[in-house]
Amino acid sequence: MPLSDTLRQYSRRRLASCHVDLRRVVMQAEAWMPFDVMVLEGARSVVRQQRLFQQGRRKRDGCWQIEDWDAVLTCYDGLDNPGKHVGDPAQAVTLAPWPVDLADRDRFLVMAGVVLAAASSLGISVRWGGEWRGEAEPERPEIAFFDLAHFQLNRVTY
Questions:
Q1: What is the pLDDT at residue 142?
Q2: Which of 16, 17, 43, 151 is the most exposed place for a label (fewest CB within 10 A)?
């Protein structure tokens, strides 16, 4: 099922909130992609980032503690560590193959390969959330936080 015009416009508005280099990468990737891709999120407000950060956590004695790793969506609190989605323009984008099926890991892997190839062809350094290892909790490197829909401009470069 192809992406409708309404959803394509929604997707474009989300992409417009992103850094120009990230927009270039996504647009090149869309041209090569074997299926439609939906931009689920570009820029986030600090409030939205905080709400996402709180998922899977509970505040105890003034500190956020993880209670449910499966519910954790981000390691960035929106304030001390705002993350790449917070900002104008956003330096991160959340993408999904259309139609969206978060359980379809294979399509996310295909999408990631195409996005990373597009970034490489344009000379733009991009990190993919599916490659993170032990970054969610550095003192426990055995815990990997995978975010297959997340792409961001490389922190070192931008």
A1: 47
A2: 16
